[in-house]
Each structure stands twice: as structure tokens, then as C-alpha cells.
Fold this sequence. Notes:
Layout: H1 2-24, H2 29-36, E1 39-42, E2 53-54, E3 60-61, H3 63-76, E4 82-85, H4 92-98, E5 104-109, H5 112-117, E6 120-122, E7 127-136, E8 151-155, H6 160-171, E9 176-180, H7 183-191, E10 197-201, H8 202-211, E11 218-220, E12 226-235, H9 239-257, H10 265-270, H11 275-280, H12 297-305, H13 308-315
Parallel strand pairs: 1-4, 8-9, 8-10
Antiparallel strand pairs: 2-3, 5-12, 6-12, 7-10, 7-11, 7-12
Amino acid sequence: MKNTFIGLATAALVALTGASTAQAQGQGLLDTIITRDSLLCTGHNGSYLGFAEVDAAGAWQGFDIEFCKALATAILGSPNKLQVIPVSWAQRFPALQSGDVDVIVKVTGWTQTRDTELGLQYSRPYFIGPFYVMAKKELGATGIADLEGGVFCVNAGTTVERVLTDYMASKGIQYESLAFEKGEELRSALYAGRCDAIAGFGPFLSATRVEAPDPEAYQILGDVLALEPEGIVVRQGEDDLLDVINWTVSALLMAEESGITQANVDEIKANPPSPTIARLLGVTPGVGTRLGISDDFAYNVIKAVGNYGEIYDRTVGDGSRYKLPRGLNNLWNQGGLLYPLVLD
């Protein structure tokens, strides 16, 4: 895995030489990506299970990685034109600001400070993330208040620390916090008994429980610390790229809502059932041209990675080992909060 990370980072540095030259000539980042013919997207400096991890063959996989592939396909026509750059939670914003990556797709919460003080812009949410606490079952806790005085482990450089601090202060619960830069370190600390509980993103806790030597030794408590919208992040001023991101996310959601899958997209493109679907799949021209990309970008994306539901299922949902319920990440007509934009 280490060699994979080094190789990817080296490739990125080579690519950035051309990127810097193009942007110096006045190109926007979207044009730079097209000229470079590759998209630089965030990975992780280890494994963020279900979202960004490296498989046994050395290939990146996970929910966030699939969205990186979708963006590479929308802009450049192929998921193979993606370069995944390993970065830590703390490194993701400096990496974007310096141009080491083009976009952050790393379950990054949309907060006011990040939006207004770091020179960032967020896409519409592509994932709705609840924060929970997972505790050792032997403690017999039925709620977070039962863990008064306990040791909580959290990921450093994330919003989890702030969310936990705010929640505990509002409830008057005393606790000790231990922060870890890498998910592997946090999990090891939990499994070794250094923590009574861990606070975190719901999917991360589910994956941590699955990976435990004895999954039944841990329970996720029902108290919700906070709900966080996760967006895809670009630098301030990159409006053209942000438009592509928003409409790519919307295309994935519209495809699911309309029953368009990786398997049937060719058939539906040949006989679109409505004017909207004809526009979506590029049969009727215009939707891509407005964005500065191919009119059939959505067709290419669906053909490459499937619709939103297919991505969710195979990476973190029922088709994966994590079995994470969709919950609020369902479509609006299935009890969730997600919906496509209007494609006119």
C-alpha cells in the first residue's frame, strides 16, 4: 500500500507542472484539467473504510473514490483519467489551496468557517452524515450521559472534535479526549482498550465495528451528536468546475430516480422515455455544452459508475461488507433528503 501511495503522489507532482503552466496563462481550473487530461482527486493517507481504501490489488475503491471517478468521466470521458492523491484530514485543505489536488471528495463537512475563511467553495451535499458515539458494550451505556468521565477517541483535523466538544458542553458531560491523525491508529487504540468510546461519522463507526476482532463487543448508541452535510470542495472562484460537480451529482440522482442503471443506460438512451431523459443522456444537445464539457457527460458517467444508488450499494450499502442503511441518503421519494436538480 505504501508503494501505491508514493507512486500516485509522484505522478501527481509531474502532472502539476503542466497544470501550473496552464493556469499561469489564464486558464480556469476546468480548462486546466481538460488540457492536462487528468483529474487530481483526494484519497486518504491510510484507509477510510467504505469511502477511500486500497484493495488487495492496489486499486483505490470506496464511495468517495466513485465520485472522483464520476467527475473524471464527466470532464474527460473516462474514469481512467483520475489520479488519486493520498492526503490526511489536516492536509486536504492546504493540498487544495496549493493546487496539489483539483477537488476534495473526502466526506468534508460544509461549515461556515471553511466556506468563508479558507477560500473554499462547496458543492451541493452528496452525502448526509450523522455523528454518533460507539462504546464498549461491557460498560452498559444506553446513552452518552452514561459515559461521564470516560475516554473518547476521535479523528484529528476533522469536525468530529468540535461536534463532540459542543455536544458534551451542552449536556454538561465531563470526558477526556484522545485525537489520532489516522483511522488505523484510532481503531487500534479502541481495540487495545485505550478508549471507552469513539465519536465519529456514522459510516466510519459502522466500518470500525465490522473490523473489530469481536464486533459484538461494541455498540453504536442512539444519541445523534449532529447532522452534517458533506460536499465536494473546490477553491473559491472555480465556478465552472463547481457547476460541473453539481450537475454530475444531480445526474447520478436523476438516473436513480428515473430507473436508469449502468446495465440499461444504452437501451434507455436509444429510446428515451421523456424530453428530460433525452437531455440527461445527451440525445438532445445542450446540457454539456453549457458546462464546457460533452453533451453526453451524464451518459458516460452512468455507464462508468452507475447511478447514485448503485454507487452507494456496492461501496457502503447492502452490496458491501459494511451494510450501512441508506437512511437520510435515500432519494426524497424514499424517505431521504436527496433530490436531483431541474434539467431544463
